[in-house]
Specification:
There is one protein chain. This protein has 365 residues and is of the alpha/beta class. The longest helix is centred in the middle third of the chain and has 17 residues. The protein is globular, with a radius of gyration of 22 Å. The chain has two domains: 205 residues, Rossmann fold; 67 residues, Winged helix-like DNA-binding domain superfamily/Winged helix DNA-binding domain (Arc Repressor Mutant, subunit A), CATH 1.10.10. An eight-stranded mixed β-sheet has the order 1-2-4-3-5-6-7-8, with helices on both faces. α10 links the parallel β7 and β8.
Length: 365
């Protein structure tokens, strides 16, 4: 069974973000979308097949946006610009140089803005169920504007309630073809992922998104997929994105679900389309750099590895780090497991080839 590693990084404005790394091979970064909880989603019958399938082919990196999940909830700023920079914070924490970027729902607009801001970092841009324009920038009819207000009031009134009726309105829009178990799981995810106050701020923010002007200047190869009968994000918004992003490939999926379910044919088509799109032999795009497993190490594990690379024995390492020899042995066991090496001499060679062995201060960032 594929396991995920959960880590944390801190943004320039002091917000602690939680991110997860799973799988092996070339990296694939998924932007945060709607409300998430990277730990709960990993076991969810609604999301599990997404992450497990992608992690079979890639090193999948995803994260909880500010105000959600395992990231800090008490934040001063929830803005579109902060979402874009939070993505860059995670990219830096993992140590990625170039990678495919997957944006789902409002995460697609974040991905577009990021690809425009950092064009050399994004090798492939993939948008699913996404939009360039938030609801309030779509020339809505009066009734549609009123519907938007109703949804906001539903969040204010019942988001944290033990009764799921308020949250289930959103669940029905996201997965109308779901089983009872899937519905209950998404209802629970909504409840534990954030507060009503943050949910309102997030909805207000992505309702006002508009990256239409940026899209025409995207130079990254782009794949856009959209469910034909998506009840949450209109199919027309996917077509609009494909018409504005130069050279974008568009694939229609036969589904009503905003979150594709494992049992539907559209899910298999979605996965195959992504694998074909990121096939470097087929499209001629240079293969992305393989993810470094050193990024899986904790700060303390990096300190221990640095001292191992200097040729220091376990007892001396324990003295330098003011911990017991047993604690050092536990750290070394974790290091060997994450780097998939069980020989101390080989781990020293690997560490020195990565530039370690010259001073512990290197890892005090």
């Amino acid at each position: 069974m594929i396991q995920q590693q959960i880590r944390f990084c801190r943004t320039p404005d002091g917000v602690r973000l939680a991110y997860a790394v799973a799988g092996s091979g070339p990296p694939l970064v998924k932007t945060a979308n709607w409300l998430s909880h990277i730990e709960y989603e990993w076991q969810s019958p609604v999301w599990r097949h997404w992450y497990e399938n992608l992690a079979r082919h890639f090193t999948l990196i995803r994260y909880d946006q500010r105000g959600c999940g395992l990231s800090d909830w008490d934040v001063k700023s929830i803005t579109f610009d902060s979402w874009v920079q939070d993505l860059e914070c995670v990219v830096k924490a993992v140590g990625l140089e170039k990678f495919p970027l997957l944006g789902i729902s409002q995460g697609g607009a974040v991905a577009v803005a990021y690809a425009k801001l950092y064009p050399k970092k994004v090798s492939h841009l993939i948008l699913y169920g996404s939009y360039l324009r938030g609801r309030l920038n779509r020339n809505l009819k009066k009734q549609q504007v009123e519907e938007t207000d109703v949804l906001i009031n539903l969040i204010r009134l019942g988001w944290g309630s033990e009764k799921p009726a308020f949250r289930q309105v959103f669940t029905t829009l996201f997965i109308p073809d779901a089983t009872l178990g899937q519905i209950q799981s998404l209802n629970e995810l909504h409840k534990i992922s954030t507060s009503a106050e943050n949910a309102v701020k997030i909805v207000n923010c992505f309702d006002k998104i508009d990256v239409s002007d940026l899209s025409a200047r995207i130079e990254t190869p782009t794949l856009i997929l959209h469910s034909k009968d998506d009840a949450r994000v209109p199919f027309e918004e996917g077509r609009l994105a494909a018409s504005l992003i130069p050279g974008a490939q568009f694939i229609m999926l036969e589904s009503k679900n905003h979150i594709l379910l494992a049992s539907e044919p559209a899910w298999q088509k979605f996965i195959k389309s992504i694998l074909d799109f990121i096939d470097s032999k087929k499209d001629g795009i240079k293969k992305v750099k393989t993810f470094s497993k050193f990024s899986l190490l904790t700060h303390r594990e990096k300190q221990v590895l640095e001292l191992i690379a200097q040729g220091i024995n376990n007892n001396e390492i324990a003295v330098q780090l003011f911990v017991s020899p047993k604690t050092i042995r536990n750290h070394i066991t974790n290091i060997f497991g994450k780097l998939e090496i069980s020989n101390r001499s080989k781990i020293i060679v690997m560490a020195r080839e990565a530039g370690m062995g010259h001073g512990i201060e290197k890892f005090d960032k």
